[in-house]
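Worked example (supplementary).
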Amino acid sequence: MSFAFDIQARDGRARSGVLRTTRGDIRTPAFMPVGTAATVKAMRPESVRETGADILLGNTYHLMLRPGAERIARLGGLHRFMNWDGPILTDSGGFQVMSLASLRKLTEAGVRFSSHIDGSKHVLSPESSMEIQRLLGSDIVMAFDECPALPADKARIAASMRLSMRWAQRSRDAFGDRPGHALFGIQQGGLARDLREESAEALRAIGFDGYAIGGLAVGEGQAAMFEVLDHAPQMLPEDRPRYLMGVGKPDDIVGAVLRGVDMFDCVLPSRSGRTGQAWTRRGPVNLRNARHRDDPRPLDESCTCPACRGYSRAYLHHVTRADEIIGSMLLTWHNLQYYQDLMAGLRQAIADGDLAGFIAAFDRQRAEGDIEPL
Amino acid sequence: MSFAFDIQARDGRARSGVLRTTRGDIRTPAFMPVGTAATVKAMRPESVRETGADILLGNTYHLMLRPGAERIARLGGLHRFMNWDGPILTDSGGFQVMSLASLRKLTEAGVRFSSHIDGSKHVLSPESSMEIQRLLGSDIVMAFDECPALPADKARIAASMRLSMRWAQRSRDAFGDRPGHALFGIQQGGLARDLREESAEALRAIGFDGYAIGGLAVGEGQAAMFEVLDHAPQMLPEDRPRYLMGVGKPDDIVGAVLRGVDMFDCVLPSRSGRTGQAWTRRGPVNLRNARHRDDPRPLDESCTCPACRGYSRAYLHHVTRADEIIGSMLLTWHNLQYYQDLMAGLRQAIADGDLAGFIAAFDRQRAEGDIEPL
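After joint prediction of all chains, the assembly is encoded as:
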C-alpha cells in the first residue's frame, strides 16, 4: 500500500480519517474540486487551497489532447504546470472518452477515438492510460475502465463490467511498483447487486491502494444510487479509501458519507458558479433571479468566502446578469467553499459521533428556504 | 479646491506628486484601471489594489443603464457595491454615449439615446450626468462633454468644443459645492492649438479641481497626439492635476508624462489580458503564439505578479488557447501590474531627476525583444 489511510473515527458505516500522501494529507470524507484542463475554472490554485481543498482532480482525456501528457512531463509534471503542490488524482480517461470523443471504436485492447478539439486520432488502453497518468505525475492514478451508457440491459452491464475487470488487471500490471503513487481500482456493475459483488471480488483479488465506485450518477436518480450505496461500499476493503466518482449534489454527498464513502469529485460547484447558481446551507440559489436585484444582504451571512464577505446579492445578481468574469470567480469560490465547509462539518460530526444530528440540521436548514423575503 | 495636490518633484515638464482625496492618496503620475460595469474585468478589487493601483475609473454610461445609478445609491454607493474603498473617478458618459448608444439625438440640452443593452430610452445632459455621478458616490466627477467623431473639419471641432465649454459651465453649476468630491473639466479642440487654447481659457475661467485633456487617442496616431501634448498641458493650471483620458500604450504614457501629464486611464491592459496579449518591460507578447508552447520560462522573470511567479509561458499559452478563465485572470493581473510598475518607475525617476535615463532604459529594453529564443 503506497499511502497510509488512518481511519480516526466511525459513526455507523461512516468514517473520517486521513489519507497520507507524499504531497500532503487528505482529510476524509474529502471533496476534490475538478481541474479538467489544468485549472479549476475561474479559480487560482491558491484560492482553491484557501477553501480547504486537500486534493484536486485532473482529467486524463482533456490533458492528453491539450496540451499533451509528454509536454506536461517535459515541463516538470502537472503539479508544477498548474501551480498546485498538493496531491492530484487523475481519472483514467475512460469516462470522458465515451462521453466526449467522436468516432470511438471499442475493442478488448482499448478505445480508438478522435479528439473533440481537433479531430486528431488517439488510443486509450489500460497501458496507455497508465503511461499518460505517469507522465502527468498523478499521485492517485485510476485504473482504466469502460462506462457503459445507460439505460443498458443487464447482459450489457455485465459484459462491460467484466471487460473493466480485465482492464483493471492490465492497469495493475502496467502501473507496476511506483513508490509515492497509488493506484485505485473502479467497481462497476450498474444497479445490480450481484454484478457489484462480482466486480468487488475481482478488484480485491487484484489488490489496489483504494477503491472507487463507478458507473453511478449517470442519470439513475438519487434513490437508485442510494440503494446501490446501501451495499456497494461494504463490498470493498474496509481499510482502504472508497471513492464515489462524479458525485454530486450536497445531499448526494451527505447520503453517501452516511453509507461509508470517503472521497468525492464533481464539476457541479464550479460549473454552477459559472451560470449564476450558488449552493448554500439553505439550498441552491439562482443569482440571476430578479428578486436579488435590490437585496443588500450577503449570499450567506455565515459563509467566510470573499463573495459572502465583500458583496451583496444585488452585486452578484448584477455581475451574473452582465456576464462579468468576476461573477464566475466569486460564485465558484463560494460554491467550493460551501462544499469544503460541508465536508469539514461531516468530518467533525463523525468525530463527535453525531452524524445523525448533523444530517437533521442539514435537512432543516435546507427546508427553511434560501433567505427571508426582504 | 476639494483635494490638495502636492507636487513633490519636477523633471523638465514632468511632475510627480500626491493628490489627497478623502478616500486615500493618489500617487501621480497615476494609472487608473477601468472598472466599467462595477468590476475591473477578471480581477477581484483586492488584487487590483495589490498591483499598486490607488484609484479606479467607473463608466457612468454603463452603470446608469445597468444596474442603474439610483439602485447603486440605494445599495450604499459604488464603492460599497463593488467592494473598493479607495477613490473612484467616473467619466461623464459623454464619450460612451457617442460610441455605444443607438438612436442618438444631440441638442444644446444634451443627448437622447437608446441603451445598447435593452433599447430603453435615456437622456444625458450636464445636469443628469452630475446627478448620476453624485448617486454613484464618485470621488472625482468629470464634466459632461461631447466628443466629436474624427476625422472632422475644424469648424465642426470648434463648434463641438464650444458646446462642451457651455456644458462645462452647466456641469460646474449643477455640481455645486460638494466637500470631499472633486469636479474635473475637460479640454477639447482636437489637434488645433488655437482651439485647445480657447478651451483651456474657458475652463480656467470656470474653475475646476483638475483638468482633463479629452479628444485624443481616437485614431490620430502617437505623433499627432504628442504634438498636441507638446503644448496642451501647459495651457492648464500648473497647480492642479492634468488627466489624459483613455491613454494608452506604455510608450504613449511615458511620452505624456514627459510632457506634463499626471493621470491616465485605459482599458488596454485589462482588455489585452482577455485576448492573450501581455505587456512587459520588453514590449508586447502574444501568448497565443505557438513559440510559447514548450517554454518553461516565466512571462517576465523580473515581474512580481502571480502570473510571472507561478506559471510558465507554456502554461499561459495553454490556458489562453483553451479559453480558460484563469488565462484572463492571470494576464489581466500581469498587465495591470506592469502598468503600475511603470508608473512607479516614472514617479521614482522624476523624484530622482533622471526621467531621461529612465526613458532611455525603457526604450532599450523594448528594443531587445521580448525574450531570447529557447
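Two points are worth noting when inspecting this output. Chain A has two domains: 4-266, 273-368. Residues 68 and 365 of chain A are 45 Å apart (CA to CA).
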